[in-house]
Design goal:
The protein has about 550 residues and is an alpha+beta fold. About 35% of the residues lie in helices and about 25% in strands. A hairpin with a 4-residue loop joins strand 9 (about 250-260) and strand 10 (about 265). Helix 1 packs across helix 8, helix 7 packs across helix 8 (about 205-230) and helix 9 packs parallel to helix 11 (about 330-350). The longest helix is centred in the middle third of the chain and has 29 residues, at about 175-205.
Length: about 550
């Protein structure tokens, strides 16, 4: 049996190995989406694919990592393939890897004297993987193949030698081969660093100790989570429902959350069937969003690994929006439906633990994919965080299932034929409340060449981020194009449009919901909001019972 101090040292060393992998990936990547926005994640897993340590990267990436590893290992076994020392597997098939095609996953085994002691893995969002539109997030696609090249688990390295034919094949199917090649190599470099760090641990403590430590780390998280449930004493069933937008229809996500003394059952029975639209979310995304929201409320500081999944039972009927059958398209499910899953879980938890749950955040990543001749660009745009017990929501921030940065305007104007006109906080967009919701953002840019395709994949245009305990909802999203002749084309939350030189794109993201009765907000805080331009005088009078 390994002593607790050694287990703790190994745990933190594995966490830092994940962080260091992320630093290497960021520093060696080519695309702005990875090197500037940090749209990547790294982790260490047990030899059989259970998450044991992670960096503080993207929740939807990390939360689906074990699902992707299990599926990949099973696929390789069925194909008679063996992961040998020096091999690296690449995969992006969402029904295996667990997110969407843009997220390319790589897994490398770590061997010591012929025995596998760990897997190191990373996942990175590549700016383009082919498909019907630049950026590969088509808002109007009907099947998976329209979203890009589908890569089953394939060895991209054997015996530490890069398989150039695999790289050439992938390069030939994307719009930005230079970025793809550089980012793939950055992922491999990151894995090599992770492998090096795990080898150092194995040599210092021994293989037997390392493998036992992995088990102890996972077991501790499982027991710790159970102890939290016992301490909270909120046994019961809590039901919540929210909606996704598709054309003229609202698509429901329904959750029954059963909290017991020693486990949680998240049952999505009653959720809408899968649709011929890119808002389906594969099972890995559902797992990631559910566990993210649960952990955030139960204990944001707790260690997270596969032990948490041993306590949480996630049930999703096959053929539904949150567990579709292939080849349903899923690009938006990873970025948008994941946000709504988090909202639904938080909404259910608000009934069980009302003093721990914030009002709804923006509820969308506001995905913008744009490209022309030989270039493609992708980014997510932040919104408002919901008001919280005792605190206002945060303005203009990436929330929930994304944990990326913004792309600096200087980088975008250098790399692409785009000129930015405005990047600001969207005033008065946060939901009124005793603790007001955070405001969204305004991002306005002009394209500088003809033949540019813009794809918007967003949400919360028809629905609004909900408030809690008397708080009001946040302002919905707005997506628009201003043509050269002055015409304004209002876009739905899922849209594709061809732009001409001089056309202007306007993105206004939702604000978070408010928390508590707005009329209970102290007068001095209302006046401070007015001075800072966070709310308008009309809003103060109408919503906050303010008397000038």
């Amino acid at each position: 049996m390994v002593d607790k101090i050694t287990v703790e040292v190994i745990k933190n060393a594995a966490i830092y190995a994940s962080e260091e992998m992320g630093i290497v990936l960021r520093n060696t990547a080519y695309s702005p989406n990875i090197k500037d926005r940090l749209d990547h994640s790294c982790a260490v897993l047990t030899p059989d694919g259970r998450l044991v340590a992670q960096a503080e990267h993207i929740p939807v990436h990390i939360g689906s990592m074990s699902v992707g590893a299990f599926n990949t290992l099973r696929y390789l076994e069925e194909e008679g393939e063996v992961l040998r020392e020096g091999d690296v597997v690449v995969v992006n098939d969402p029904y295996i890897a667990g997110t969407h095609l843009n997220d390319i996953t790589m897994i490398k085994p770590v061997y010591v004297d012929g025995d596998i002691v760990a897997l190191v893995a990373n996942k990175a969002h590549h700016v383009d993987v082919g498909g019907s539109v630049p950026g590969s997030l088509g808002g109007d696609v009907r099947e998976l193949i329209q979203e890009g090249i589908v890569i089953p688990p394939t060895k991209i390295m054997e015996k530490n030698e890069l398989k150039k034919d695999v790289v050439r094949l992938l390069e030939s199917n994307v719009r930005t081969p230079h970025y793809l090649r550089g980012d793939l190599k950055a992922q491999i470099a990151a894995l090599n660093v992770g492998e090096k760090r795990i080898l150092e641990l194995a040599r210092k403590y021994g293989v037997k100790t390392l493998l036992e430590a992995w088990e102890d780390i996972i077991d501790y998280t499982s027991r710790y989570t159970t102890s939290i449930l016992e301490e909270l004493g909120v046994e019961g069933s809590y039901i919540f429902e929210d909606y996704m937008e598709w054309e003229e229809e609202l698509i429901n996500i329904k959750l029954k959350l059963d909290i017991k003394k020693n486990n949680i059952i998240a049952d999505y029975t009653g959720t809408h069937r899968q649709v011929d639209a890119p808002i389906n979310a594969v099972y890995g995304v559902t797992v990631a969003a559910t566990t993210y929201a649960l952990k955030s409320v139960l204990d944001p500081e707790m260690p997270i690994n596969y032990g948490f999944l041993e306590v949480v039972d996630i049930r999703v009927p096959l053929g539904t929006l949150l567990n579709p059958k292939k080849p349903a398209p899923v690009s938006g499910g990873n970025v948008e439906t994941s946000q709504r899953i988090a909202d639904v879980v938080l909404g259910a938890l608000a009934k069980a633990l009302p003093d721990r749950v914030p009002a709804a955040a923006a509820g969308t990543m506001n995905n913008i994919a744009i490209g022309g001749r030989g270039w493609a660009f992708y980014e997510t745009i932040g919104g408002g965080m919901g008001g919280r017990p005792g605190k206002d929501g945060v303005d203009a921030i990436h929330v929930h299932m994304t944990n990326t940065l913004n792309t600096p305007i200087e980088v975008l104007e250098t790399e692409y034929p785009i000129r930015f006109l405005e990047y600001s906080i969207r005033p008065a967009s946060g939901g009124p409340g005793k603790y007001r919701g955070g405001n969204g953002m305004r991002r306005i840019f002009k394209v500088l060449e003809d033949g540019v395709t813009l794809t918007v994949t967003g949400e919360r245009k028809k629905t609004r981020p909900w408030g809690l305990r008397g708080g009001k909802p946040g302002t919905p999203a707005r997506y628009a194009v201003i043509k050269n002749d002055g015409r304004v084309i209002e876009l739905p939350s899922k849209a594709r449009i061809l732009l001409e030189v001089g056309d202007t794109v306007v993105i206004e993201t939702p604000g978070g919901g408010g928390y508590g009765d707005p009329c209970e907000r102290p007068r001095e805080l209302v006046e401070k909001d007015l001075r800072e331009g966070r709310i308008t005088l009309e809003q103060a009078v109408r919503e906050y019972c303010y008397n000038p």
